[in-house]
Amino acid sequence: MIKIEHLSKNFGDLVVLKDINIEIHKGEVISIIGPSGTGKSTFLRCINLLEVPSGGVIKINGENILSPKTKVNDLRQKMGMVFQNFNLFEHLTVLENLTIGPIKLLGKKKEEAQNKGRELLQMVGLAAKENSYPGELSGGQKQRVAIARCLSMEPEIILFDEPTSSLDPTMVSEVLGVIRRLAQEGMTMAIVTHEMSFARDVSSRIIYMDDGLIYEEGTPEEIFDHPKKDKTRTFIQRIRNFQYKIENKDYDFYGMNNAITTFCEKHFFKVQQIQAILLVVEESLQLYFDKDNIIQRNEIIKSGGGINLSIEYSEKDGQIVVSFVTTNDLPSIIKGAEVSDGISMAIISGMTESVEEDEIDGRLRLIMIMHLI
Amino acid sequence: MEVKIENADTETMVKMIGRLDSMNSGEVEKAVAPVMESDMKNVIIDCSEFDYISSSGLRIFLTMLKEAKKKGGKLSIRNMKAEIKSVFDITGFTPLFIFE
């Protein structure tokens, strides 16, 4: 239905979309998610030429809409767009908002347009408001009128640009309910949204955009439950990240502890939770700089670029992942612990749910998972 | 980290104040050396102002315990906070000590 190849968009020197490639099939519901400022809305606006792409090809039913021969108004009739801020005609009644397009652009008779308009108002639960003006409606009602108006043009696809982001939280569900119903009826839709549970429920495919690119895409299960890429995971699980570099055995222990404590306090960890993290970090470093082989291990660590400590905290489920990455010239930390007095590893095991070691990009990673209770 | 040692007729009170970690365990070891060199008949470690212990600290406690036992003495831990006691629990050290 829609095929987009190498789409790019610059605003002066600012590159907003880099190289977007995607196909949207009839009946698909695609939610576009990602951090603010990553080009999601610009992407949507490029599809119906509210923004003129800087490069690439957009084909709708095989026709390149960026060709000078394309009649932009004809194209826009195939595509409805629902905006954050409703964009209703304030001087027209609700019903007039729904009939003006069909009468003027589709050449429908007034009575036919009104009948269809009333039917759509019924569908969005606003039949009683046909003679009201937009200024008399709540935000949620305005957005439902905007959706009905969009449908009155009988589009093949509807593009939603953050349809609930300017609504009072109490009004979000009424709008999502209407979109959900359209999805059940098989309407093709592309939705830019920050409503993650809605995106998960309603979509056939999720696109995660970051830095002007489609960074990862997949089914809702793939993206929300098993994201493959780091940025997707960070976004989905609302991960807060702490990084610290340990160059060698003479690292600033108290500086590191202060930095960890500050990070934890910023995210409202309890004192005992902070102590547990500090303890896991300290004991791990005891194993890295094992006293029996400290000179040799220190040399390996130092020449291998030090140790990268990372603490990731997921606001979504309270999981904390503490990991250390260093050169794989260093022998296994877990195996090394087996021949030590065992106290450090006993503390680590007691404080964590799992302790594992693997290799990532040719470097040794010790990874420990904890949970805030 | 501060260690205060008070000797009375029948007992020696070792008060641990602050955080005992891998960086300051050497100093603490030195601070408690006179106690370990004594006859260690009845040593009490007061932990009411003790805030953190790592494996380095546990090793010092264990050494003190061994030393006390060797001399036929007794070592008890007093007023230890629950979060520090949990470190003794998970390492299996709890049954070795007398907690008051």
Structure summarized in a few sentences:
The complex is a heterodimer of chains A (373) and B (100). Helices cover 39% and strands 27% of the residues of chain A. Chain A has 14 helices and 15 strands.
Provide structural commentary:
The complex is a heterodimer of chains A (373) and B (100). By secondary structure, chain A is an alpha/beta fold. In chain A, strands 6-7-8-3-9-10 form a six-stranded mixed sheet, sandwiched between helices. In chain A, a hairpin with a 4-residue loop joins strand 12 and strand 13. Chain A has 14 helices and 15 strands. By secondary structure, chain B is of the alpha/beta class. The model of chain B has no long low-confidence stretch (mean pLDDT 94). In chain B, 38% of the residues lie in helices and 34% in strands. At the A-B interface, helix 11 and helix 14 of A face helix 2 and helix 3 of B.
What is this structure's SSE topology?
The complex is a heterodimer of chains A (373) and B (100).
Chain A: E1 2-11, E2 14-24, E3 29-33, H1 40-47, E4 55-60, E5 63-64, H2 72-78, E6 79-82, H3 94-104, H4 110-123, H5 139-152, E7 157-161, H6 169-184, E8 188-192, H7 196-202, E9 205-210, E10 213-218, H8 220-225, H9 230-236, E11 239-246, H10 253-266, H11 271-288, H12 294-303, E12 307-314, E13 319-327, H13 333-338, H14 343-351, E14 354-360, E15 363-371
Parallel strand pairs in A: 3-8, 3-9, 6-7, 7-8
Antiparallel strand pairs in A: 1-2, 1-4, 4-5, 9-10, 11-12, 12-13, 13-15, 14-15
Chain B: E1 2-7, E2 12-20, H1 25-37, E3 42-53, H2 55-70, E4 74-78, H3 82-90, E5 98-99
Parallel strand pairs in B: 2-3, 3-4, 4-5
Antiparallel strand pairs in B: 1-2
Helix pairs in contact in B: 1-2
